[in-house]
Design goal:
The complex is a heterodimer of chains A (about 300) and B (about 270). Chain A is an alpha/beta fold and about 300 residues long. Chain A has ten helices and twelve strands. Chains A and B meet through helix 3 and helix 4 of A and helix 4 and helix 5 of B.
Chain lengths: ~300, ~270
């Protein structure tokens, strides 16, 4: 996903002069293609995320679309108030990019585990979360964000995720993307719905007997503002199984439940699969920790 | 060109009345910066009330957002908003919130949480450099605010990138929320700190209009370096019973106290 991100960013920046990248002294072997081609629009803000985000908002207020870039919790929690007040409240086009969403930096410890980021970002009224499930969705999200500049959060995996889409899909906030039909669908009324890099887990679970009647959807763009649209999507199903590599509290499944539970016409049973808090404070590979957290492969 | 001492007195009169009407706090913090704000709006800033978003305007950011009545009053005196708008300060649904609000014409940035103005202004100054624009960015900070580490992150960045189009002003009234700055979190030697961070530093009496105008009007003072003006001020300046009294960070003047404050300010206009 990281490579798709920087490739797409370079392509978009070649077209749009107002795109700039501000990094928090991270991105070695990732950001160089951008930095080499657009030195006037590449800024290393150093190890200073509050200033990185505040100055990104200041530049955005003068017409730039700024992508801030760092890993895991550094561009989000460390500068949460700058995102809340400077970016989101002023509705400025800053895209906060965190590489290593979920437990991608599993061995590096709790400091590097981004398992509460959705909770933070979904609490901001103007924020659009972009959590792509594969490199194609990364490109789709990037194109959407540049075409619709606004406060946004792009959460990237770093495990060399495969493509599940054959082409760059059309994305819209709140719109479910069908990734696969069910193996043995009786009525197409059950689905696995993933956001972010757990799309690969959803595709794996689809092969398990328990989920052989489930289709797979991805929801890469979601926000407070796109909650209302979930009712219409949910009405098509009898069972919605959500997946996310984030803690249950404040996460994607919780967001979906708030959006649809108790709404007229929605009869779907919703089952939330998110990380158990056992992962907090434990180190291991991403797959080891995902399994510990309840997201093991079939 | 407006006489800045006249403007400052008008700002002070408005400020005490707004705070009384809204039963608000922070009057002493606002009185502290009235002269700085008057010199900025009356002499230094290139601004046009008919075009508050003009591309070539100077950008002013009030980082100590709790001192907002001084800026709202200046905006009204200079024609950015109607003087009647000041009557809505702190009222339900008014854009004139009790911390500076970008929903008011002429205000660049909302603050209220300290330590946000300088990084934001640094971004504006960097944008201006990259766009080869001539306008400058001015950021007014409080002294207690310097406890926020984000300011020092921005200072390192601004000097590293040679942002000589960035001018910061510290309202150094030596009092903060509970007691003196010195007893809270010592910031001296302040000029030496700023200098060590790569900024060009000057110090003035923050109530001396001529000195303020000379210093702010001549920035940048060193090519390639951001400028910071340490403005020595008196918290509550202009109202005798508020000056240097920590409780006026919070208290609202009574009807009698408002009358006394307005009398004192009136007498100063005849002095």
């Amino acid at each position: 996903m990281r490579n798709a991100f920087v490739e797409e960013l370079v392509e978009l920046a070649a077209i749009h002069d107002h795109i700039a990248l501000v990094v928090g002294d991270l991105g070695y072997s990732v950001v160089e293609p951008f930095a080499d081609r657009f030195p006037d629009r590449f800024i290393n803000a150093g190890v200073a995320e509050q200033n990185m985000t505040g100055l990104a908002a200041g530049m955005a207020s003068e017409g730039y679309h700024i992508f801030t870039y760092s890993i895991a919790n550094f561009p989000t929690f460390r500068c949460a108030e700058q995102i809340r007040n400077d970016v989101d409240y002023h509705q400025l086009p800053v895209t906060v990019v965190a590489v290593g969403g979920g437990l991608a930096y599993g061995a590096l410890g709790y400091s590097h585990h981004a398992v509460q980021d959705y909770a933070l970002m979904r609490s901001f009224p103007n924020m659009l979360i972009a959590a792509p499930g594969d490199p194609m969705e990364v490109r789709a999200c990037m194109r959407y964000l540049v075409a619709h500049p606004q406060p946004s959060y792009l959460r990237l995996g770093k495990a060399g995720e495969p493509n599940f889409h054959s082409a760059v899909p059309e994305v819209q906030p709140g719109r479910w993307l069908k990734v696969a039909d069910s193996q043995h669908s009786a009525d197409g009324k059950r689905t696995l719905l993933s956001t972010g890099a757990t799309l690969g887990i959803a595709m794996d679970w689809r092969n398990a007997p328990e989920y052989e009647q489930h289709s797979v959807y991805s929801l890469p763009l979601w926000s407070m503002a796109s909650k209302a649209e979930q009712v219409a999507a949910a009405k098509k199903f009898d069972e919605i199984v959500t997946l996310e590599d984030h803690l249950v509290d404040g996460g994607f499944g919780s967001w979906m439940m708030e959006a649809i539970v108790g709404k007229p016409g929605v009869g779907a049973r919703i089952v939330v699969h998110a990380l158990k808090s056992d992962v907090c404070g434990t180190v291991g590979s991403q797959s080891t920790l995902n399994t510990l957290g309840g997201l093991g492969m079939s | 060109m407006v006489e800045t001492t006249v403007l400052a007195r008008a700002i002070r009169r408005n400020a005490v009345q707004m705070v009384r009407r809204a039963k608000a706090s922070h009057i002493a913090s606002a009185l502290s910066i009235c002269d700085i704000v008057a010199v900025l709006y009356g002499r230094v800033l290139t601004i046009n009330p008919a075009m508050p978003k003009a591309a070539d305007r100077d950008r002013f950011i009030l980082s100590k957002g709790h001192g907002c009545v001084a800026v709202y009053a200046a905006l009204a005196e200079c024609g950015f908003i109607a003087k009647e708008d000041l009557l809505t300060y702190g009222q339900d649904h008014s854009p004139l919130m009790n911390h500076i609000s970008h929903k008011v014409p002429g205000v660049e940035f909302s603050t209220g949480s300290l330590g946000h103005g300088l990084p934001f202004g640094t971004g504006k100054a960097l944008a201006a450099k990259r766009m080869k624009a001539a306008w400058k960015t001015y950021v007014l900070l409080s002294d207690g605010e310097l406890g926020e580490g984000s300011n020092w992150e921005a200072m390192m960045f601004a000097s590293h990138h040679g942002l000589d189009n960035l001018v910061a002003i510290v309202d150094y009234n030596k009092l903060q929320s509970l007691t003196t700055v010195d007893k809270t979190l010592r910031i001296e030697p302040l000029a030496a700190k700023f200098s060590a961070f790569g900024w060009s530093v000057q110090e003035v009496d923050g109530h001396d209009h001529a000195a303020l105008a000379t210093a702010l009007g001549s920035a940048p003072w060193a090519p390639g370096r951001p400028s910071i003006l340490i403005a020595h001020t008196t918290k509550g300046k202009g109202v005798s019973f508020m000056e240097n009294r920590v409780e006026w960070h919070y208290r609202t003047p009574s009807t009698e106290q408002l009358a006394q404050a307005l009398n004192e300010l009136q007498e100063q206009s005849h002095a």
